Amino acid sequence: MADESTPLKYKRILLKISGESFCRDRQGGISMTEITRVAEDIRDVVNQGVELAIVCGGGNILRGKQFSDGSNAIKTATAHYMGMTATVINGLALQDALEHIGVPTRLQSAIRMDSVAEPFIRRRCIRHLEKGRVVILAGGTGSPFVTTDTAAALRARELEANVVMKATKVDGVYSDDPQKNPHAIRYDRISFQDVLAQRLQVMDAQAFHHCMEHNIPILVFDFQKSGNIAKAAHGEAVGTLVADADDLND
């Protein structure tokens, strides 16, 4: 559990959740067990006063790039739109799971789906956050050929988030693939500049450069461990913090 007696380090958080967070390991679809666990973790951090916007992926249902090889019957742009609609499915599921446990939530989509989601409107989204509502941001950016990592980086800047938290199934950024190299080193903190110099994979290149250019810190952490979001919000050592070198030296 996070130490709630310490002040919040991050008041407004952009949380990037992969589609795999919604399903069991190596399975597709949506697991009620997993989505309930995710919702309970989110409830705990929101109850501490954090303003939370969530960009969810859709890889548990469909990835647009899976159609890039083989037949051209489905065009690449169409495949990406299919992937975007998958994120709306996840967003609907997460919204219901959160509201079932008492967390007020709004689903906004970059693709117009007025029957099930609000359109993404920056000022409306910020107002929801200020009122203590979780805002789930689905549909990526609404444009093909753009990853949900990039959507998260762009929305973080639009919403003036203090940090982008990337929820993964590993506990941070390593010097090498820890599954292939048992001597790989996990970093507690690393600068944007060192990530580039070592060619480490944190987010896709466009998302990473956007965060670096606009000095938006990135926290990569293991979302499978309950309580990590709340701990990170209070500044406890969780995962790997990627930030400007000058900020890390403060």
CATH superfamily label: Acetylglutamate kinase-like
Please state the average pLDDT score.
Answer: 91
Query: By helix and strand content, what is the structural category?
Result: alpha/beta
- One letter per element, helices H and strands E, the order comes to EHEHEEHEHEEEEHHEHEH
Proportion of β residues?
Answer: 15-25%
Largest sheet: 9 strands, mixed
Number of extended strands: 11
| Domain tally | 1
Could you please say which CATH topology applies here? Answer: Carbamate kinase
State the CATH class. Alpha Beta
Overall body shape: globular
What integer value in Å does the Rg equal? 17 Å
Low-confidence stretches: none
Report, as a whole number of angstroms, the end-to-end distance.
27 Å
Across the major sheet, the strand order is 4-3-5-2-1-6-10-11-9
How would you describe this structure in keywords?
single chain; 250 residues; alpha/beta; Carbamate kinase; nine-stranded mixed beta sheet; 11 strands; 34% helix
Describe this structure in words.
Its EC number is 2.7.4.22. The chain is of the alpha/beta class and 250 residues long. The protein contains 8 helices and 11 strands. It has a single domain (12-247), classed as Carbamate kinase.
Give a brief rundown of this model:
With 250 residues, the protein is an alpha/beta fold. It has helices spanning 32-46, 76-100, 122-130, 148-158, 192-198, 205-213, 228-233, 245-248; strands at residues 12-17, 51-56, 105-109, 118-119, 134-138, 163-168, 173-174, 186-187, 189-191, 218-222, 240-243.
